[in-house]
Amino acid sequence: MERKTFGGLWKESGKCLHGNWGKAILTAVISIAIQIAVQKIPYGWILQVLLLPLTLGLMLFFLNLARAETTGIADIFQPFRAYVRNMWVMLRPGLFTVLWGILFIIPGIVASFRYAMTGYIALDHPELPAKTCMEKSISMMYGHKMQFFGYTMLFSLIGGAVIICTLGIGIFWFIPRVGAFAACFYNSLAEKEEEEAVPILPENRQD
Fold it and tell me: Are 62 and 182 in contact (CB under 8 A)?
C-alpha cells in the first residue's frame, strides 16, 4: 500500500465530513466547552486532568466518522466506561514525552510523534494496556514521524491563516477538519500495518 499524501488524506477527510459538519462542530464545541468550563472552577486544572478521557472520546467520534460507522455526541463520553485504563492511556504518553523533553527539546518532540497513535490504538484494542498501545504506536509511526511532522506544520499554517482571516470563527471549521484528518491518517497506517502482517500464501508468491 502506497503512503497517502497530504492531498489524499485531505480529500478523504473532506468526504468524511460531508453531510456531517453540523454534528462534528456540535460535538467538538461540547467537548471543548466542558474543558473550558472546568478552568473557571478553583483548582480546575485537576478536573482538566481527570477529564482527559474526554479527548479520547473526541478521537473516537472522528474515528467512527472516518470509517463511516454510526457516530454521535455520546461517543465523547464512551471512554469513561473504562475510566482508569483510558485515563492512563492519555497520561502515560504525556509523562514519557515530558521526561524526554526534560533531557532535550528535540527528543521530546520526537517522542510526541512516536506516541501520537496511542489513543487510536487504545480505541481499536480495548483489551490492550496503555504500555502496549504505546509500543504499537512506536512501531506504527516508524518511518512516518517526518510525514506526521510535515502534516502538523501544514495544518498549523492553514489553521492559523483561517482563524486569523475569519476573526476566530474559523476555529469551528478547523477543529473538525483536524479531527477527521488525524483519524484518516491513523486509518491509513493501520491498513498498511494490516497488509504487511498478512502472510504470503504459496499461490500468491511471486518468485
Answer: yes
Neighbouring C-beta atoms of residue 28, cutoff 10 Å: 21
Q: How far is it, in rounded angstroms, from Cα 172 to Cα 11?
A: 19
pLDDT of 10 reads: 93
Averaged confidence pLDDT in the chain: 89
Q: What is the pTM of this model?
A: 0.89
Phi-psi region of 2 (alpha: psi -120 to 50; beta: other; left: phi over 0): beta
Each domain of the chain, given as residue ranges in start order, spans 6-194
